[in-house]
UniProtKB/TrEMBL annotation:
<keyword id="KW-0812">Transmembrane</keyword>
<feature type="binding site">
    <location>
        <position position="253"/>
    </location>
    <ligand>
        <name>an alpha-L-fucosyl-(1-&gt;2)-beta-D-galactosyl derivative</name>
    </ligand>
</feature>
<keyword id="KW-0479">Metal-binding</keyword>
<dbReference type="InterPro" id="IPR029044">
    <property type="entry name" value="Nucleotide-diphossugar_trans"/>
</dbReference>
<protein>
    <recommendedName>
        <fullName>Globoside alpha-1,3-N-acetylgalactosaminyltransferase 1-like</fullName>
    </recommendedName>
</protein>
<feature type="binding site">
    <location>
        <begin position="161"/>
        <end position="163"/>
    </location>
    <ligand>
        <name>UDP-N-acetyl-alpha-D-galactosamine</name>
    </ligand>
</feature>
<keyword id="KW-0735">Signal-anchor</keyword>
<keyword id="KW-0808">Transferase</keyword>
<dbReference type="GO" id="GO:0046872">
    <property type="term" value="F:metal ion binding"/>
</dbReference>
<dbReference type="GO" id="GO:0016758">
    <property type="term" value="F:hexosyltransferase activity"/>
</dbReference>
<dbReference type="GO" id="GO:0005975">
    <property type="term" value="P:carbohydrate metabolic process"/>
</dbReference>
<feature type="binding site">
    <location>
        <position position="183"/>
    </location>
    <ligand>
        <name>an alpha-L-fucosyl-(1-&gt;2)-beta-D-galactosyl derivative</name>
    </ligand>
</feature>
<comment type="similarity">
    <text>Belongs to the glycosyltransferase 6 family.</text>
</comment>
<dbReference type="GO" id="GO:0005794">
    <property type="term" value="C:Golgi apparatus"/>
</dbReference>
<feature type="binding site">
    <location>
        <position position="163"/>
    </location>
    <ligand>
        <name>Mn(2+)</name>
    </ligand>
</feature>
<keyword id="KW-0732">Signal</keyword>
<keyword id="KW-0464">Manganese</keyword>
Length: 304
C-alpha cells in the first residue's frame, strides 16, 4: 500500500516537473532566421511563409464575416481616423468586415468611407476616469457582444487596439481557431524577464520557469466561440483579482498571457502583426503590417 502511494507521488512529481521544465521556444534561431512553427506545431506567421493570394482565395470561398472590435474611449477617438482609413487599405481587403466600435463619444467617430461588404456599428458605453479601468472592462464588453450579436453575425473576431495603424497587408493568413500575437518588445527576451504577473495572489500569476512567448494584448483573434472563451475566462479572473484588490501588472494583457500559457493558440502572429512606431526596424521583421503609434500618454489618458 505504501509502495503504491509513494509510486503515485513519484509519478505526480515527475509529471509536475515535466510540465514545468520544457525549454522556452525561440522566435529567432541562432542562425538569425525566423522560426515559423511553435513546439506545439502551430504556425508562426512571418512574411515568406505563405502565399497571400492562395490563402485569401481559400477563405473567400467560405464567405466569412470577420468581426473587429475596437475601444475608443475619451481622447482615444483621435486615433480612429487613421485606424479605420489604414484598415480599409490593408486589413482583410475584399472580405466582409464588420467593425464594432465601443466609445463614450459617438459624436467624435469620423466619417470614413468603407469598402464594399464592410460596415461599422458604433456602440455607446459609459466614460471612465481611469485608463486601467477601461482596459479591465474590455474583456467583459467583448464577452457580452459575442453573446448578444457575434454568435449570429460573424465567423471570426479580432479585438484590436485603436492607437494603431496598418502599414501592410493583414489577410486570411491570420485566421485560425485561436490567435495570439508575439509582443514586439519581448520576442528575444528570456522568459524570466517577461513582464508577466509574478505575484501568486493574482489569477494572472505565471511562475518564473514557465512561459512560451510574451503575447501582446493589442490583438486577440480566432473563431467567435474560442474568443468568447478567452474573454469570459479573463473577465472571470479579472473579477476575482478585483475582489482581492489586486490589479495585474499589465491588466488584461497579463490575464491573456496566463490564458495562452495553458490554452495554446492554434496560430501565432509574428511581431510583423504588432510593432511599435518608436521601435527601430530589425533584420527579422521584413514588413511591418500593424503598429502602435507614438502617443503622448499624458495627452490621451484620463489619469497617470
Ligand atoms: C455570404 O454571406 C452573407 C452574409 O452572411 C449573405 O448575405 C450572402 O448571401 C452569402 N453569400 C453566399 C454566396 O452564400
Amino acid at each position: 500500500m505504501n509502495a503504491v502511494k509513494s509510486n503515485c507521488l513519484f509519478y505526480t512529481v515527475i509529471i509536475l516537473l515535466y510540465r514545468l521544465s520544457y525549454n522556452q521556444p525561440s522566435v529567432v534561431g541562432l542562425d538569425g532566421k525566423v522560426i515559423a512553427v511553435t513546439p506545439w506545431l502551430a504556425p508562426i506567421v512571418w512574411e515568406g511563409t505563405f502565399d497571400s493570394f492562395l490563402i485569401d482565395s481559400i477563405y473567400k470561398q467560405q464567405n466569412i464575416t470577420i468581426a473587429t472590435t475596437v475601444f475608443a474611449l475619451g481622447k482615444y477617438t483621435q486615433f480612429l481616423k487613421d485606424f479605420l482609413e489604414s484598415a480599409e487599405q490593408n486589413y482583410f481587403v475584399g472580405f466582409r468586415v464588420h467593425y464594432y466600435l465601443f466609445t463614450d463619444h459617438p459624436e467624435q467617430v469620423p466619417a470614413v468611407k468603407l469598402g464594399e461588404g464592410r460596415q461599422l456599428t458604433v456602440l455607446t458605453v459609459a466614460s471612465s476616469n481611469r485608463w486601467q479601468e477601461i482596459t479591465l472592462r474590455r474583456m467583459e464588453k467583448l464577452e457580452k457582444l459575442i453573446e448578444s450579436r457575434l454568435v449570429n453575425e460573424a465567423d471570426y473576431v479580432f479585438s484590436l487596439d485603436v492607437d494603431t495603424k496598418f502599414y501592410g497587408r493583414w489577410g486570411a493568413e491570420s485566421l485560425g481557431r485561436l490567435i495570439g500575437v508575439i509582443h514586439p518588445g519581448y520576442y528575444q527576451t528570456h522568459r524570466e524577464h517577461f513582464p508577466y504577473e509574478r505575484r501568486p495572489e493574482s489569477q494572472a500569476h505565471i511562475p518564473v520557469a514557465e512561459g512560451d512567448y510574451y503575447y501582446g494584448g493589442a490583438v486577440i483573434g480566432g473563431l467567435v466561440k474560442d474568443v468568447h472563451e478567452v474573454a469570459k475566462t479573463c473577465r472571470e479572473q479579472l473579477d476575482i483579482d478585483a475582489a482581492k484588490s489586486i490589479e495585474a501588472a499589465w491588466q488584461e494583457e497579463s490575464h491573456l498571457n496566463k490564458y495562452f500559457l495553458y490554452n495554446k493558440p492554434s496560430k501565432v502572429l509574428s511581431p510583423e502583426y504588432l510593432w511599435q512606431d518608436f521601435k527601430p526596424h530589425t533584420n527579422e521583421v521584413k514588413i511591418i503590417r500593424f503598429s502602435q503609434v507614438i502617443k503622448n500618454y499624458a495627452a490621451v489618458r484620463p489619469n497617470p
